[in-house]
Every structure is written in C-alpha cells, then in structure tokens.
C-alpha cells in the first residue's frame, strides 16, 4: 500500500477512504471512495506487460462487453509499475450455487467474448500487437509447459510429475486444429463475474487476456462451476451455443485442465508458496484428480 499516495496524487484524486480488495491474487487492487462519494478502483498490476495488456483489452472490448471503463491510465516510472483507475461496476462477484438462468447467461457472455476476433495469437503492447512466432498457438502452449517443468519437478511427487508430463506429450499430438484467434480471458471464473439482481453486470480482471484459441478458456469454468455443480454444464452450453457454436471439448478440456493446473503450480512457486499455499494445494488436488481419472480411462 506504500505507493497508493503516489497514484492518488498522479491521478489528482480527492480520496476520503481506501479499502483493499482481498480476492486479487496477482495485482494490487484498492477501492477508493472519493469526496463526492463516488467509488473507483485503483489497480496496480504485477508488471508493465500486464498493465498494458489489461488497458488495451478494456479499450478493445468497450461497448462490446460489460467491462469497466478506464477513467485514467499511467504507465508508471522507474519506481512503480503504473496503474489503472477503473470504473466501479454495480454488483458483486458470483458466489455459492449458480442457478440455471445465471449459468445460461455465463455461457452466453463467454461466447460473446469469444466472438471478438483478434489480429492473431498474441497480445497488445505499447509498440503494437505482439504476435506469437509464426502465429502458432500450440507452440506457445508447449513452450510455456516446458518452462514450468523444472519448477514443478521440485514440487510435485515424482510419480505425479511423470504422469502429468506423459499425458501432456500424448494428448498434445492428438489435439484437433485450434480455432482462429479470439479474445480469451484466461481467468474466466465466478470471482471475476459481477452480478446484481441475479443478472450479470460486468466482467473484470483482463490482465492475462490475449488473442488465443477459445479451447484454453474453459478450464476455470470447469473447475469452479461444472465440477461443483455438473447440472450447470448443459445449461451453460445452451447459453454459449445461442451466440456461438461451442467447440468439441472432449479432447481439449482434459488437456487444458491439466495444463492449467500444472502451470498454476509453477505460478505459486514463482510468486511465493507460503503466500499462495491454498492455491497451490488446489492445483495439486486438481492434478491428482485429473491424472487419476485419466488412468481409469487408460488415457
């Protein structure tokens, strides 16, 4: 919280109260109450790449999806990353049991997001769109997984690590062709969806978003919605298909669920295991569940 006053001064804000937002795991986020009683959010991303990525994506999605308006943006200096001053959208993050109507709306919203085309696989930078080499999506997935392997080797039990690597290698070569580049959120989960009066009012936290294949974007939906209440999956898919035809998830979802959890373990190690112990254990449990289910199916 040491840098808050610097941002408040930079944005010329008259702030009467500052509240931390505890559910923000990567960036620092604060809810500011201004002297006119207006509330805004100050977001200080982990690094400048995430800062600009979120800024550019919110600009790209303005008027297309219920995303927060960017009131002010500062790229920072040699001492601080920079920050976004964001609109406060009415509503609270989704918690608890998700009713059918909301599951349908979540599916529809994600399909709307996946209907926004991107110029390629990659992400926006201050110097323009940074595309992946040869615009090859799967090479990026392989590269990222390989970078996580040395980290995960030190954390996972040997048998679990070997099963993860073996399944990744086997499934990778048999994946269907990825769909064209669209907006993928990469953290599309109930905690980043705001609701008021049982209706979705906003979607937040685009610091990891980019142009990607939609196949990667269902892992959090699966983990936090379908696994906890399997009946929601069919209704979610109905909502999704009302906007855009859902890809065949039979081969891609198990693959990306393992990939997401494996990379999640590495993320915890890089950001601090003690600080992210709960998330680490969640990913470890997911890897055990996924590999056990694959063993049962002889995959």
Structure commentary:
By secondary structure, this protein is α+β, with helices and mostly antiparallel strands. The chain has nine helices and twelve strands. The protein starts with a helix and ends with a helix. The model has no long low-confidence stretch (mean pLDDT 94).
Short summary:
With 299 residues, the chain is of the alpha+beta class. Helices cover 43% and strands 18% of the residues.
Q: What's the arrangement of secondary structure elements?
A:
Elements: H1 4-10, E1 15-20, E2 28-34, E3 39-44, H2 48-61, E4 70-74, E5 83-87, E6 92-93, H3 100-114, E7 122-125, E8 128-131, H4 137-153, H5 158-172, E9 182-184, E10 193-196, E11 199-203, E12 210-212, H6 219-226, H7 231-241, H8 249-271, H9 277-296
Helix pairs in contact: 3-7, 4-5, 4-8, 5-8, 5-9, 6-8, 8-9
Defining traits:
single chain; 299 residues; alpha+beta; Phosphorylase Kinase, domain 1; Aminoglycoside 3'-phosphotransferase, Chain: A, domain 2; three-stranded antiparallel beta sheet; 43% helix
Helicity range: 40-55%
Rg over C-alpha atoms, rounded to the nearest angstrom: 20 Å
- What would CATH call the homologous superfamily of the largest domain? Aminoglycoside phosphotransferase (APH), C-terminal lobe
Q: Just give the CATH class of the largest domain.
A: Alpha Beta
* Beta strand %: 15-25%
Average of the residue pLDDT scores: 94
The dominant shape is globular
Number of helices: 9
Main beta sheet: 5 strands, antiparallel
The CATH topology annotation of the largest domain reads as: Aminoglycoside 3'-phosphotransferase, Chain: A, domain 2
